[in-house]
Amino acid sequence: MRVTRQRKAILQVLRRAHAHLTADEVYAAVRAEVPRISLGTVYRNLEILATMGLIQKITTGLGPMRFDGNPERHVHLRCERCGTLEDLPMKKPFNPQEYVDPSLGHVVRGVVVEFHGLCRRCAAESGV
Amino acid sequence: MRVTRQRKAILQVLRRAHAHLTADEVYAAVRAEVPRISLGTVYRNLEILATMGLIQKITTGLGPMRFDGNPERHVHLRCERCGTLEDLPMKKPFNPQEYVDPSLGHVVRGVVVEFHGLCRRCAAESGV
DNA sequence: TTGAGTGCAAAACATTTGCACTGAT
DNA sequence: ATCAGTGCAAATGTTTTGCACTCAA
Lengths: 128, 128
Prior knowledge:
2 copies of one chain form a homodimer.
Chain A: H1 5-16, E1 21-22, H2 23-30, H3 39-51, E2 56-58, E3 66-68, E4 75-79, E5 85-88, E6 107-118, H4 120-125
Parallel strand pairs in A: 4-6
Antiparallel strand pairs in A: 1-3, 2-3, 4-5
Helix pairs in contact in A: 1-2, 1-3, 2-3
Chain A binds a DNA duplex through α1 and α3.
């Protein structure tokens, strides 16, 4: 894999970002550094970086995909009030085998867990 | 809410389906019964039925949304080999509080859990 | 030097919407 | 009779792709 200016800039944007960005947000941010980059290149690189495990691709079922510069395993909280997607530390790792009976013939290799509720700010503002 | 021919047919297709269908698959199936139904009507009704809790809308991050005629809470297994989405019985219920620390200010109201791996048929065929 | 990567523009795909008409109540 | 629901077609928004060109190795 070649290290291009575009690829470096995309990775940098994601690593520096506080929130988890959409492809379009990445595009906008990277343009500050590489003005002539195209949206197609952004998509291509996000796909490649995710496949290589350098970033994470998060599909949430609400709006477009988002990308997370943190490749470590962690879970997300989707705020029902403001729509943001933020990291959530887990008390203990999630073990699929606790929940699924392996004798039924299928094979469980992994699991995607996404919490939803209220983020810190919205919980405070709505006085919950 | 009115009980139209279209709405009844859509619900019936989803309740009879073994797998969890995309809007397009529902459209194709319903056309056998209501040939002049439009895709827009299918989408509108799927949205309404899901909001009313009669069906479930499942966004999986791979391909288009899928719809589940079973409104009860249960989890799904996405087969990495053939792409189907099927129901998975759980040994015990999933309790978010076991995993997430409630003292951090946010509020967890629910969780979406999706397993991935191999469905029965693919597990058997690939000899795992 | 050379082919992986790029920019551009068009295409593909899923979903939503405006509008005049229809049919369930 | 009324208006929620429908069919149609166009619009929207996201993501992918073909192709000629560029530049990292």
